[in-house]
Specification:
four-stranded antiparallel sheet, 1 helix, 4 strands, flat
Length: about 60
């Protein structure tokens, strides 16, 4: 499998704080700690990721 294109969170301030990166795949989304690019990634199925993002946009998760 080729390396997926990782996208850093827009909330990253570049000062080494807490940040995540996501990579979209046909079957879902991978999520990892941006400070540990060689570390593990969490695989989230597409439908679950969509529900999560929708809840964030509605302000249901803080």
């Amino acid at each position: 499998m080729s390396t997926p294109p990782w996208i850093k969170s827009s909330y990253s301030n570049g000062a080494g704080g807490e940040c995540v990166e996501c990579a979209r795949l046909p079957q879902g989304t991978l999520v990892r700690d941006s400070k540990r690019a060689d570390g593990p990634a969490l695989a989230v199925p597409g439908r679950a990721w969509g529900s999560f993002v929708d809840a964030l946009r509605r302000g249901e998760l803080v």
